[in-house]
Amino acid sequence: MRHGHCPKCSASTVYAAQNGLRLGEHPHAVLMPHTGPGFRGMVQGHNTTGLWQFVCTTCGYLETYVLDPAAIGFIQQRWTPVPQS
Which domain of life is it from (predicted)? Predict the structure, then answer.
């Protein structure tokens, strides 16, 4: 998607916007740490404006990328890695 081609339908009708989806009341997104089921308490998130959305206007496929190095670091420290299968 970041190179202008849709991986789902192979169309070249891809459009992009930084923070193109509003994920809250402000023009930034808040990344939250992973918490387990039943978690009760307060957590501190990470504010970022480094989210980019790419949409194929032919099939509607959507991808979101985090292009903020500080946000990537937050994710590496506070999210759970997905095991390889």
Answer: Bacteria
Which structural domain range is residue 62 located in? Answer: 1-22+49-79
Report if residue 33 sits inside a domain: no
54 close to 34: Cβ distance less than 8 angstroms: no
Q: Give the separation between CA 4 and CA 64, rounded to whole angstroms.
A: 14
CA distance 65 to 1: 10
Tens-digit pLDDT string for the chain (85 aa): 889 999 999 999 998 887 666 656 666 677 777 777 777 778 788 888 788 889 999 999 999 999 899 989 988 998 888 888 8
Structure tokens at 33: 């740490």
Q: Which residues pair with 48 in a beta bridge?
A: 29
Closest Cα to residue 15, out of 57, 52, 50, 51?
57
In a domain, residue 40? The reply is: no
